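Renewal narrative, Specific Aim 1. Our central claim is that a sequence can be written position by position from structural information alone. The example that follows is taken directly from our test logs and has not been curated for this report. It begins with the structure tokens describing the chain, in the order in which they were read.
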């Protein structure tokens, strides 16, 4: 039953993310008078045509992994163009192309803002208090030996106030094998402890060279807000996460190379559909799994917004770059050369996705949690 729920939740999440993305392309193209032949839910082969309106077929397809928009064939150039149209986008002004291309990722951004706003309206806004709450203390670890307990509030570590979660990891990396002072609050009373960062083994068997051996997260107070406050916080939280995602992009090459290493990189490994499905199963089994599921959906939607705008061949960002080049040159890049760039990029993406999927499957067999312990 758990597996069935996970599969259904994963398909719902992925379908929503991709259909919303494609809906952005579709609605913008229609608004600009660009001809669309098909709006498909799922990927071909086609199962059935739901209905047809204004020359557009709305179809249901057998592979339930998202959706697509099929733009009309560019007859003038005698080729199929993913972004072609009757008033062909291939021959349209570059700004029109950019609007259609940008609309897909933009819809993912708007979806994330809407989801976060609804979560804040229903559940309140978490406000950090400037400390970290210890969730679990693992046995036979430096934290267990030092006397930490689940539920302790970690106030300071190695002489620094723990106002940010990153400070805990920094304290471990900067003081390997060296005793450090910690101040905690337990049942309203402050206590002084001494802990020595050292090697420990996670419940899944992963070897950590230097750490403490407890899980932790920001201590927050929940403040109830009205609809306007929820929307305002939805915007600010979404853009705060985007900023952190942009910062983490610098570690992406190392994370990809980490797939080939026996130990996971500090920033974690990239995950594909299998990893996302497992992460979905992990969040829906947590207390408050319903809200956790929608929170994960919003985070992934922000990821899609950001990644699709990167100038990677075959993604929206790359098509936008070609439209900008056309705008600057006053003429299009030869279609065969543009198609070659996108074909090479698509092949590289598929190869990377295959590699990530294999790694996801290995992690699944090893029982390694996607979201950590």
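The sequence written for that structure reads:
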């Amino acid at each position: 039953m758990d597996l069935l729920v996970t599969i259904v939740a994963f398909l719902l999440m992925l379908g929503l993310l991709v259909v919303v993305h494609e809906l952005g392309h579709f609605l913008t193209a229609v608004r600009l008078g660009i001809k669309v032949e098909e709006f498909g839910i799922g990927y071909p082969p086609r199962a059935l045509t739901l209905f047809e309106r204004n020359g557009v077929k709305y179809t249901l397809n057998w592979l339930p992994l998202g959706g697509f928009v099929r733009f009309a064939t560019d007859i003038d150039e005698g080729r199929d163009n993913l972004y072609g149209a009757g008033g062909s986008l291939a021959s349209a002004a570059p700004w029109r192309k950019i609007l259609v291309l940008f609309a897909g990722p933009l819809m993912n951004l708007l979806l994330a803002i809407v989801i976060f706003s609804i979560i804040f309206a229903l559940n309140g806004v978490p406000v950090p208090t400037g400390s970290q709450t210890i969730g679990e203390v693992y046995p036979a670890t430096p934290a267990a030996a030092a006397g930490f307990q689940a539920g302790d509030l970690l106030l300071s570590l190695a002489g620094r106030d723990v106002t940010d979660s990153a400070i805990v990891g920094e304290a471990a990396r900067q003081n390997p094998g060296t005793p450090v002072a910690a101040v905690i609050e337990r049942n309203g009373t402050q206590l002084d402890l001494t802990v020595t960062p050292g090697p420990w083994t996670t419940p899944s068997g992963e070897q950590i060279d230097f750490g403490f051996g407890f899980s932790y997260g920001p201590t927050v107070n929940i403040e109830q807000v009205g609809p306007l406050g929820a929307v305002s916080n939805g915007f600010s939280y979404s853009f705060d996460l985007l900023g952190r995602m942009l910062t983490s992009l610098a570690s992406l090459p190392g994370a990809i190379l980490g797939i080939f290493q026996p130990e996971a990189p500090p920033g974690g490994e990239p995950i594909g559909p299998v990893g996302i499905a497992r992460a979905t199963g992990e969040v829906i089994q947590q207390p408050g799994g319903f809200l956790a599921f929608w929170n994960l959906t919003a985070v992934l939607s922000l990821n899609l917004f950001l990644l699709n705008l990167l100038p990677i061949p075959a993604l929206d960002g790359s098509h936008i770059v070609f439209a900008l080049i056309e705008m600057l040159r006053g003429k299009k890049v030869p279609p065969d050369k543009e198609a070659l760039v996108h074909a090479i990029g698509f092949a590289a993406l598929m190869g990377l996705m295959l590699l990530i999927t294999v790694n996801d499957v290995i992690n699944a067999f090893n029982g390694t949690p996607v979201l950590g312990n």
